[in-house]
Design brief:
Length: about 150
């Protein structure tokens, strides 16, 4: 599905509901913050490299990396949009399903509970295992099949 059509579809969904303009604004602000918070993790290594190798201050390093990232993103958007559709339609659901199978079915209950409870004050209960086994894995499979049949489910 073309990225532009995806966004137009979302806008039309919000326009058809009571208070939809406000819901749409809040949704897109949430998407903006989700994307920006993901960038913090991705940009940390190049920012630290500029600081260490060139002796730049953090604000300057962040500005250089962010500006470079924006420029590169604008130039490659048309090149990678088809590839990103394939990633979101096939690879993400497949990866989620395989990770769920490995974590909940192959590694086992004890491993999974120990992994998610490490460092927690209040441990996650035993409900977590059936939720992963019988909800996450099947829903990931459904998303994979539906995406393949429908050309995406977004």
């Amino acid at each position: 599905m073309d990225g532009c059509c995806f966004y137009l579809y979302l806008v039309n969904v919000f326009n058809g509901m009571p208070g939809g303009k406000i819901v749409g604004i809040v949704f897109y602000i949430c998407v903006l913050f989700a994307g920006m918070s993901s960038l913090v993790n991705l940009y940390e290594a190049p920012v630290a490299t500029l600081q260490e190798k060139l002796g730049l201050k953090r604000v300057t390093s962040v500005g250089i990396i962010a500006g470079t990232g924006c420029i590169v993103a604008l130039f490659i958007q048309g090149i990678v949009s088809g590839w990103m559709d394939a990633v979101s339609i096939y690879i993400c659901p497949l990866g989620a399903m395989l990770a769920g199978i490995m974590f909940f079915w192959v590694a086992g209950k004890d491993f999974a509970l120990n992994a998610v409870n490490t460092g927690k004050d209040k441990p996650i209960g035993k409900w977590f295992i059936p939720l992963g086994k019988y909800v996450l894995v099947p829903l990931s499979f459904i998303a994979l099949v539906a995406g393949a049949l429908l050309g995406g489910i977004g």
